[in-house]
Amino acid sequence: MLIFAHRGASKAAPENTLLAIRKALEMGVDAIEIDVHNIEDQVVVLHDRHVERTTNGKGRIQDISFAYLRTLDAGQGQRIPTLWEVMQCIAGKCTLNIELKGITDIEPIIALVDTALLELGFSIDQFLLSSFDHHILLAFKQRRPQWRIGAVSASCPLKYAQFAQQLNAYSVHLDIHTTNQKFVDDAHARQLQVYVYTVDDLAEMDELQAMGVDGVFTNVPDIAINHLRSKSRS
Ligand code: G3P
Ligand code: CA
Fold first, then answer.
1. pTM for this one?
2. Average pLDDT for residues 92-119, to the nearest whole number?
3. 6 is catalytic
4. Residues within 5 Å of ion ligand 2 by Cβ?
């Protein structure tokens, strides 16, 4: 089962910062998940639409400037990174799952991924673009059909994973609250990988693994990796 560092190693360091990315790499994760927004002509890495929860600043991303955003402390002296800085930090050492949150323009992300593929040692299968907004995923798929996309869902639809198959997605990213055996089996029957968020509890991790889930997003990747290793030894 793959271990995704959710917002980086977000228990060990402030979420979605370069420190959280570096710690996740040190822990030996399979993948790192981050959240991104457009601001001016930049793509920046943070979860919320507002900066209050994770920084010492105030305001909505759509109302503030990139210059102001870069002055903010995101915890432990970290600043909000750009997507390019995260890409430079990872540089092909693991998969990067870019969750599209406040994305109003897909072109800057296309340009960044194209450049990262040429300059930073990533292979195409190390990028996974995901979103709750399936229209934006479709737009990426139309521009770059060979890129992997992951359809995020917090519900259990009547037709299970059909929405992801329609998008020609690589994976479905399911909320643990709405994950069940039928959903997992249906996704697998449609040749989709199944990744579940957010799983910090080891008993839940074991249950999901028994269901055949292919990966989990966790805030505690070091604990998850140690747990899976000790299980495979016994
Ligand atoms: O991508 C999986 C998960 O991160 C989605 O929820 O709110 O943590 O971005 P959230
Ligand atoms: Ca996310």
1. 0.98
2. 97
3. yes
4. 35, 99
